[in-house]
Structures are given as C-alpha cells and as structure tokens.
Amino acid sequence: MSKTLPRNADVADQFDLLADLLELEGAESFRVLAYRRAATRMRETSGSIAQLALDGKAKELSGIGKTIEEKIVQIVDQGEIEALAKRRATIPPEVVLFMRLPGLGPKTAARIWRELGVTTLDELKAAAEGEKLRALAGLGAKSEEKILKALAFQAENQDEGRRLLGVGLPAVLAVVDALREHPAAVEVSEAGSVRRRKETFRDLDIIATATDPAALTEWFTQRAWVEEVVARGDTKATVISNEGVRFDLRVVPPESYGNLLQHFTGSKEHNIALREDAVRRGLSISEYGVTTVETGEVFHAANEDALYEFLGYEPIPPELRESSGELAAARTGNLPKLVELGDLKGDLHTHTTWSSDGKNTLEEMVLAAIERGYAYYAITDHSHYLREERLERQLEEIEELQERVKPFRILKGIEANIRSSGEVDVPEDMLARLDWVVASIHQSREASPTERVLAAMEHPYVDCIGHLTGRKITRRGPMDIDIGRVIEGALATGTFLEINSQPDRLDLRDVHARAAKEAGLKLVINTDAHEIRAQGYLELGVGQARRGWLTKDDVVNTRTWPQIEKLRKKKR
Predict the structure, then answer these.
(1) Fold of 163-251
(2) How far is it, in rounded angstroms, from Cα 351 to Cα 358?
(3) Planar angle of CA 277, 281, 285, nearest 5 degrees
(4) Does the domain made of 8-88 have the CATH classification 1.10.150.110?
(5) What is the pairing mode between strands 464-465 and 436-440?
(6) Report field, pTM of the whole predicted structure over 0.90
(7) How distant is the alpha carbon of residue 549 from its chain centre?
(8) What is the pLDDT of residues 155-171, one digit of tens each?
(9) pLDDT tens column, 539-555
(10) What fold does the segment set 95-156 form as a domain?
(11) What is the CB neighbour count within 10 angstroms for residue 82?
C-alpha cells in the first residue's frame, strides 16, 4: 500500500515553524527568509511538493534548493524535519505564538521566555497583568497594555477554521473554470460567502447543472489536487484539496439552477428576509422553487434574475445579499450599478524592490501593469527606504523608464509614515515634486490614531490615507479610530481614503466604505502590491467596494489621470 503524502500546506507549515524557531534562536536572517520563501512557493505549487521532492524535482522550483528538498523528503519519511524536531524539544510551543502579537518580535519573545520563564499565552497574560514584563529593558506599561489588548482580541476572534478570501477566491474560480471545460457541464458557478466576496470563508461551494451529473461529480473527485474524497454521489461530492480546503459540489436540475444558486449564495439573513417577505404575499420559498400557497403552483427559475423578478425585485448582485437594505432598494428599482473590475484605469499604491519588502523591480512592476491594460501606475515605496538621496535616484529611474513606456503614465509617489505627532516623515519640498502621496500609520498604533490621521490630512501634499484602521484579518484588530470624524476630515480637506486590497487587510471594511460613500466621499481601490502577483488583488478590493455599494463614480481610479488631478486638493 502506497504511503499517503503530506499536503503542500502541511509541508509549508513545518518550514514556517522552523523559520519561527530559528528567529527565536537568533539565527541569521537569510536562513529564516529562505525557509519562509520556500514555504510560500510550496503553497503556490499546484502539484504535490512531496512527490516532486521524492522524484528529485522540487529543487527545480525557484526558492527550493537541494537542502530544502532533502528536508521535504525527511517530512515524507519521518513525519517531520529533523532540525524542527530538535528545536521543538528545547523551545516551548506557545513561545512561537508570542511572535504573532503586535510589537512582539522574536528577540523580545525570546527574552520574555528565557529571562522571565514565561512559556504560555496564559502566563504571558498573567505577567502583563502583574506588571512583570516591565522588568525587562525596553518594555514598559504601554507594552503590557498592548499585549493585553492583543490577547483580548485573539480571545474574541478565535480562528474557527475560516480562511482569507484571497486564498479561496482564486482556488474556487480555477475549479469552476476546469469544471466548465468538462463535456457534461452546462452551468457552473461558485456560491456561498466567496461569491458574496466576504473577507473570510470556511468551505468553497460550487453549483452546477450537467447532461450527466454522475460523470461530472466523478471527474471532480479525481483531480490531481484532491487529497481526500469525503463524500461522493451522483449529484453531490465533497473533497479536501492538498491545501486542506474543503470543496462542495452540487449538481442540480437545470430548471431549478437559479433557485439553488440563489439559496446557496445569499447570507442566512438575506434568505430569511426574502422568505418572510414572500410569506406575506402568499408564497413559500424553498431551495428548489417558489410555491404559490393558494394554488400549489411551483415556479422554477433557471437563473437567479428570473427568480428575483418573479418575487418582485430587480436582480440583486451577490455582494449585496447581506440583509442591509438591498431588498427594499431592489423592490423600488433603486439598487446602485456597482463598480466593476474593468472600470479601474490604474493602481495608486504599489511597491518595488526600492522597499526592502518588495519582490519585483520598478520596471517589472510597471511592465506588468501595462500588461493589465492600465493607463497609469503610481510607485509609492515606503518613505523610510528612500532616505539619503535614494528618492532622488528612484525618480531618475522612473523618468528614464517613462520615456520608454509612453503614453503609459508612471506616477512618482511615496507612502509616507504618519508619525505619532501627526506629521508625515518626508520634507514638504520633496513631496511637492511627487504626483501622488499616500500617508499611513505603521507604528505606535495606540498613540491617538484619529488625531494623527486628521492632522496628516491637513497636509497640502497628502492625497490619500492608506489602510486606515491597520487591521490584519484574524490576526489583529483595527486601531481605535473614529471613522465618522475621519470621513468628515477627508471631505473637509479633499483627501481620499483607500480600500486596500491586500487579502489580510481589505481596509476599509465594507460598512465603512458604504458610510464614506453615503457621506459623499470618493474612495481609491489600491492593491498595495509588493510583487507582480499581488497586482491581481485588485479584484478583492473591487469586491469589497461592491459590498460597500460603491459605483464607478464613487471610485477615484476609475477616472483618467487628468480627471483625477482635477479632483485633488486645491492647495497644490
């Protein structure tokens, strides 16, 4: 009997953990980075990384050399990397979790463990509450307060098996595309929370119709990426991918495709409201049809639009199906025409290798943007990496590249830090030379964030506030920011707020984006891309904007650059 190979995600997890433990030991940064990059590459690999290693082919992948390939084989043969097992024996397991808390890097985590003997999260909480952490140099009352807040957030937002939309959306769309190519497939669509573009998901749902349902479900369960078949019938199948993601496929009768797709897409609250409204009008809704109670006649909908129209609504986009006023608006024909990905003409928050965390050069990022059909692209590398004449040199590189890519427009920009005083960390005369300035809070998150943002927006050269609340979904909560005051300040100063499309940010939240829209503020949808692949995150930001009821007119970068210039601050 052949040995079951570990999933790519499980192999990658071991390398990430090894990197964590090496950081705690104070190992060289290049070793830590090599393991983290290898883990990322493993998660992005479609085939079995374990099988590739056994075949001696894993080292052919970028970022995976012979040494890492040997360690993958160790996982297959022994269940664990030998170097990881060695370190597990000496480092308490929960000390690694200290490093997940904001402001607690590996050095500080190691000191708390070694010098105070704190080895668990419960002990860390007790030490902070007992004011024992401040005994260590560099830690004080504010550090203890930050740790306690972070621990409280984790307790209130425990991971319930949910993953980021940025993981699930490309995965489910790839499977949907593959299913559509099958000869038996007729209609195929993603459903569930991912179709509503909700920021996290638990399972990935797919609804289909087919000329031969059994053939389609069987083919689905036999894909190379399927690690485990949980259930399989003629019309239903559930599988677990080699990334540990659960996919549920349901093949339904063609005449009820619209009924079932709507049922499996709408939120629980949306569907309940829809059914309650139907009951008041003598109708009964099930996932297979709508019954007129008096006559027993059943209406089947081959598509969702027909279903909503039968019920007296204009078709409701999936992103709005959250019971937040969409039924009333659809009843009166007042739903907005939501912004679409194709409406965007450029990206106004991006990074290159001029930032130390950038992975692609300026030229590579620009050429990739041109391939995407953009008209303009702002280079906004981190200000603290552009000191000592580096900004001047970057501007020269942009000018040289600009000559080669005309009429495409490269915008000279920067992402400035908002200091605890509310000042930005770039001299005004330098900002005056730039086309676009994003200002963001990156440090001292607890230090009056609302007042700092309001002060930064008063600056004549700050165009946009980046990732306003600073949240990291499932990892850390938002800063304590008064969104209403910030929106008022943005309107008063002519400053834009962004929807940051990074999968773990999606910041602004959908409800905040809608509040900004209703106040009359226009927003920018940016990727904050640090590599070419991340330029594709724009789709996530557009999904967030649609959940916030934004139209094309509500989004700044649906306009040409000359049109944007007319919207910018009059102080310039």
Answers:
(1) Beta Polymerase; domain 2 (3.30.460)
(2) 6
(3) 60
(4) yes
(5) parallel
(6) no
(7) 19
(8) 666 555 688 999 999 99
(9) 999 999 999 999 999 99
(10) DNA polymerase; domain 1 (1.10.150)
(11) 12
